[in-house]
């Protein structure tokens, strides 16, 4: 059974792109005012939208909750954690949780593009039996699994200490990438409160 919030209209869409290119250590380029200024009316509208937007970031141990609130009181929130290569410590993926248009919790798990897609992904909480997941899509910077967070999985994540994401790197073979569940419950409660409010 999946969770649903009473006011699903307050959050539109699933915010799974928090990490975007940044989860691989990149940065999203921002054009300067001159580059955007060819159309004065468009620049004014962009400036007004920027002035009315608000971003809040809260950290709960290993998890970060980010909310973006635009004009007309629309708010989109997600919680995330970067996945790091166990040998080098470099970011190689991200685990993002957001809320869809029906108010359900949905997770997006991102891995590098040089991955054996047919091998899929496993998600294991502590020593429980791993879940086997299939990739949904690949973009130039990442491949992604999207799954609803059902009550059984949520209970495991809330009670767990660590989890592992398994996938097959084309160059290095099967990898098991650990991530921490410290702060998961508090981050999730904050996400739920923001989505419901």
UniProtKB/TrEMBL annotation:
What InterPro entries does this protein's entry cite? IalB_sf (IPR038696), Invasion_prot_B (IPR010642)
Tell me the keywords, alphabetical order.
Signal
Q: Where is the signal peptide?
A: 1-24
Signal as UniProt keyword: yes
Q: Pfam family of this protein, just one?
A: IalB
Name-wise, this protein is: Invasion associated locus B family protein
